[in-house]
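Limitations
The structure tokens in this dataset are predictions for the assembled complex, not deposited experimental models. Users should treat interface geometry with appropriate caution, especially where small molecules or nucleic acid strands are included. An illustrative entry is reproduced here so readers can see what is and is not provided.
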Amino acid sequence: MSPAQLETRNPKLETDLKDLAQDIVRRAIAGGASAAECVVREGDEFSTLVRLGQVETLKESGSKAIGVRVFYGKRAASTYSSDFSREGLDRMLKSALELAKITSEDPFAGIPEPSQLGALSGDLDLYSADVYSLPGEERISYARRAEKAALDFDPRIKNSEGGSFDAATGHKIFANSHGFVGEYQRSYCSVAAVPIAQAENGAMQRDYWFSVARSLNRLESPEHVGRVAAERTLRRLGARKVKTAHVPVVLDPLIATSILDHIFEGVNGDSVYRGASFLAGKLGEKIAGDRVNIIDDGTMPGGFGTSPFDGEGIPTRRTVVIENGVLKSYLLNTYTAKKLGLQTTANASRGLAGTPGIGPGNYFLQPGPKTPKEIIAEIKEGLYITEFLGHGANLVTGDYSRGASGMWISGGELAFPVEEITVAGNLKEIFFNISEIGNDLEFRGAMACPTIRIDGLTVGGE
Amino acid sequence: MDKSRFFFEHYGLTERDLERYLAVALSAGGEYADLYFEYLASTSLMVDESMVKSASQGISAGCGVRVIAGERTGYAYTDDLSPERIVHAARTAALIASGPAKTPSVGFQEKAARSLYPVTLPSVDAEITAKVELVMRADQSARAYDPRIKEVRASYADELRNILVIGSDGTFAEDAQPLARLNVSCIAKTDGNSARGSAGGGGRVALDFFFGEKTPEHFAKEAARQAILQLDARQAPAGEMEVVLGPGWPGVLLHEAVGHGLEADFNRKQTSAFAGLIGKRVASEKCTVVDNGTMPWRRGSLNVDDEGNSTQETVLIENGILKGYLSDKLSAKLMGMANTGNGRRESYEHIPMPRMTNTYMLAGEDDPADIIRSVRRGVYAVNFGGGQVDITNGKFVFSASEAYLIENGHVTAPIKGATLIGNGPDVLTRVSMVGNDLKLDEGIGTCGKDGQAVPVGVGTPTIKVDRLTVGGTARKETGGFMQ
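Predicted assembly:
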């Protein structure tokens, strides 16, 4: 494939930055590098926070930065700069070429083969200029409406951390010394509310809700967001501790995503080749319950995890990670794939500097047939978790222990709020004990999970 | 290091320019404006499988303009330090206000220079080969510790942050803030069993710190020791019990349980579980907790905060009574309280807010050995991962990564990592013993708030909490507590 065919075709985006990225790569090679990659990122952000009806903060700005990674054979190093002046770029290149001399020869280091490079064609629906189309006053009014809907919902909503509206656009350019150059733009907007409810005894509870979209016209109404935030906050009032117990646990979708994230960390090629994951060496084996099917798909139009190519210039794809509980694929970039003797899954992620990491596309658990209500109705005594506190998951051993709050389930219904409890177990068993999966899959980010039920956990309390 | 007039020399700024930018920022009637110039140089290195696999360096520079009008804050930033772009940012931020232009005070008053981290050669400018030596030595030392150590990753990162803060109240503060950190993580393996361990440290220090005071071998052995120890860890117990915290990093309890809840912004908005509790008892009388940004070389220390104010030692809790909050300019003004010099931000892209520096409990009088002896059945936790708090309901967690059972006054078997959970406003009322062995952490803490990360320190002497919920898995009813 010739370099020309590799370019993503979007004439609107023809920019100086693309030329700049290619020029930096060319100069790295001229400076003695055997291979090079260049990343340029630019973006704009707007955010506003309205609290108790008054504008509290307004922020509006843009920035750009550039990074280069160079190879001397099997040695690599990288540098970055926010200074685009001639001197700034010269220094960045010079430092990278010098730095690459002190790193080690790594037999697996290198950029992808030319035949692997490319980009998805067609409109991936990642950018909508309308996120900035609202006049200033109307943006503020989005934030104000979300907060007001929460404050007006119930007299027990007495305070607020505010309503907010955010918008952002980003433009990413990537070029390498095999002639690949590609770019894409993405947009984002969100509205959120964080109300505070107070009980008669003065005890306060806080919760939140939000909507996020790539286009303004796909954003949920601020009123809806405010009302859901108020409901989620009110149901926490009067929360109490419970006695230590072994009961079924149901995770609300936002919270359930964290379990999916642990699986992601467990199949991340970087942890796998180092043996830092208990899922290392388990390809083809059963590692989760029969109903568990997990997909990573970087190609879904409009998705929060979608891009035409990954952080190394390889077209994104759909990967079945777990099928009926059996581990079908790790998630890999070029380096980790070589280490494991496998093919990359085009999950390379990268910042401006450092070696490429591994990031999700649109990564999700396939929904099941039951509604969340039906799942809860089958439980006599149990715990419905709406929030986790802390990060107590150990992917080496599988040990799992986190702070939690939520609702106690009694006789198949949500009975009363609980807090200051822990939930503990081992991820090796937790993945197998995902016994029910809800029908409520909804993307609010690159990772998404329906309601799930997990058996066999220890709930720690009094 | 030469910290004089960095931005004047490198970007040709003059005092007249700065006055002009402030005038533009106040042109729409703002009451106060400030500019934060930042030039950050950083290096990082990582060794994995005994190879230096990654090395990077970078520069990021920019300026953030803030305008305050009442309780409203306008903010804009630029990564291009040309006069046109700074003026543009100042105009954008100015629009938060609507009224006749205000005039900034004439002339700047420079803060008396303080020098909490007087390094002669900042580590970012030191020879890269010396840094390579550090990570390679860490790798070798961890591997040599025990043949069961199979994977080692050692990383080194440093930075030098030059800042200049100017304010329409005459504020003029410059600082050059070095920061360096060495980290080691290990995985130990036996047939069918694996465990991890990690350790690290540093501070606002020069590179020689790692060749003298705290060597790569020190951190490597500590990481390897923890990994080997965890191979034999038993299940942790579940439920409420007596907990003894070892000295040093377990001070993360104070950071989560009380520190965040005492940041003035939450109390101004009455969203903290600590709101309205000044003068009230929130801890046992053995507890005195301070935040201190003035400790030489410490990771959480600053000569000036990111609003140009001198940092200080602030008493948060004195003999159990809540004394004060941590404030920045905005909250001090709106709450009519003193500014404690805790206004911090991640970078020029961020609005400053009240943040902790080094937060710790003062030493008490108890002998640590007596504290252990006083516990019949409980947990002794000596190392922690991170923590988190919900400041509104006060619930906080912190996760033990190295802990042991205490049985009949003796420390016995190591237990698996477990999360501890409690309630901020009353957990310290159950502190019944405070050791005489105050220790600060090794310099690894990073605190996140509203998406902004800043380096912090924590510390504590050995303390005993009479009742805290431990999130283990062991079943009391089937195997007894000691299962």
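Some entries come with short summary sentences. For this one: The longest helix of chain A spans residues 136-153.
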